[in-house]
Design goal:
4-stranded antiparallel beta sheet, 5-stranded mixed beta sheet, 310 residues, alpha+beta, globular, DNA-binding
Length: 310
DNA sequence: TCCTCCCTGTTC
DNA sequence: GAACAGGGAGGA
C-alpha cells in the first residue's frame, strides 16, 4: 500500500533507471488502467523521460515529446493556455518545461520494475513502456485499482484531485504544518484520523502513517479533529514528519506486496508501534492495543497512552 | 459526513 | 467460503 514514503522510494529507485531514456512504444494490457488521456497515447512514441518525481501519493513522469509530435495540435490546445481557476498548487518544479506528464496512482498494489528488453508481461502487468535496448518498464497492479493519466501540463492544473491536494507534509516546518492543521481542522466534526487521511488536508498520508503519527503524538485517533488542542497539533506535525522521514530512510514499509523499483523490500514495518499490532502490547505502557474502524479503515491505538479529545 | 463500491490474493 | 486489506469516487 504505497503511501508517501513508499512512492518516494519508488521515485528514487525508478528515476535513475529511466530518466533520459526514450519510449519506443506503449502496450496497454488492461484498458481501464489508463484513466485519462488515451487519445494522447500515440504521442508517447519517441518521447524522452526527462524526470521522475512525486506529489502526494502520485508518481509523476515528465516527458519531452519527439520533435515530430511537438507541434501537433491537440483538441484542448486553447484551454491549455488559460490559467487554471483557483489552483492551490502550481506544477512542481521537478516537472520542468515538459510537454506531457504521466501521473500514476499506485493505490494498494501498484509497482514498477524495469525488465530486460523482450521480457514478456507477468500475471499482473497492466502497462508496458518499451525503452528499446534500455529495457521495458512494467506497471504491475494485482488489484487493478491503480491508474495512469496521460496529461498535458494544463490538464494537470485543471484536474480537481490535483488542485485540491493539501500541502506536502515534509516541505514545510512543523510549526507551519501545525498552523495549517489548526486552520483546516477548525470546525471539522470528523475524527482526527479521518482528517489525516483526507488528501485535501495533507497530502500523502495513508492508513499506516496516520496510525503511527497519532500514536507518536499521543492523540486518540477517534478524537474530534476540532477538539485537538494546538499543543497536540504541533506534536502531531512533528510526529508525522518524523515517521515519514524515518520510513523514507528505511525505504518504506513492506506489509505484503510493496517493493521498490529494484525489487527490494522496505524495512519500516519493523518499526511499527501500532499499525498491524492489534491486541499486542503497547511498546510504551505494555497494555493491549485496541482497534476500531474509522472511515472504513482498520485503526490500532493505545487507549491508555493516547488522549481522547472531545 | 458517512457508506458502498471497486478488485484479488491471503488468512481464518 | 467469508472476512479482510484500503484510496478515492460517487452517492445518500
Amino acid at each position: 500500500m504505497p503511501e508517501l514514503p513508499e512512492v518516494e522510494t519508488i521515485v528514487r529507485t525508478l528515476g535513475p533507471q529511466i530518466v533520459g531514456k526514450t519510449i519506443e512504444s506503449v502496450t496497454t494490457l488492461l484498458p481501464k488502467t489508463v484513466q485519462a488521456g488515451t487519445d494522447l497515447l500515440p504521442l508517447l512514441e519517441g518521447a524522452r523521460i526527462t524526470n521522475v518525481c512525486r506529489r502526494a501519493k502520485l508518481l509523476l513522469m515528465a516527458l519531452r515529446l519527439a520533435p515530430k509530435n511537438q507541434h501537433k495540435p491537440t483538441p484542448d490546445a486553447k484551454a491549455e493556455t488559460a490559467a487554471p481557476q483557483g489552483a492551490a498548487y502550481c506544477l512542481p518544479a521537478c516537472l520542468g518545461n515538459c510537454d506531457l506528464i504521466l501521473a500514476f496512482h499506485l493505490k494498494m498494489t501498484g509497482s514498477f520494475f524495469v525488465h530486460p528488453p523482450g521480457t514478456s508481461p507477468l500475471a499482473h502487468t497492466r502497462l508496458i513502456f518499451d525503452l528499446g535496448q534500455a529495457g521495458r518498464i512494467f506497471f504491475d497492479d494485482m488489484r487493478t485499482f491503480g491508474y495512469c493519466r496521460v496529461m498535458r501540463p494544463g490538464d494537470l492544473e485543471r484536474w480537481p484531485f490535483w488542485t485540491s491536494l493539501g500541502p506536502e507534509p515534509l516541505d514545510i516546518s512543523p510549526e507551519a504544518l501545525a498552523a495549517h492543521f489548526a486552520r483546516s481542522l477548525s470546525g471539522r466534526r470528523a475524527s482526527i484520523k479521518t482528517s489525516l487521511l483526507d488528501q485535501t488536508v495533507v497530502a500523502g498520508v495513508g492508513n499506516i502513517y496516520a496510525d503511527e503519527s497519532l500514536f507518536a503524538a499521543r492523540i486518540d485517533p477517534r478524537s474530534h479533529a476540532r477538539a485537538v488542542p494546538e499543543k497536540s497539533l504541533l506534536a502531531l506535525a512533528k510526529a508525522l514528519q518524523n515517521v515519514l522521514r524515518q520510513s523514507i530512510e528505511e525505504c518504506g514499509s513492506s506489509i505484503r506486496d510493496y517493493r521498490d523499483a529494484l525489487g527490494n523490500a522496505g524495512a519500516f514495518q519493523n518499526s511499527f508501534a501500532v499499525y498491524g499490532r492489534k491486541d499486542a502490547s503497547c511498546i510504551s505502557c505494555g497494555l493491549a492495543l485496541a482497534s476500531c474502524k474509522l472511515s472504513g479503515r482498520g485503526t490500532v491505538f493505545c487507549p491508555k497512552c493516547q488522549t481522547y479529545f472531545e
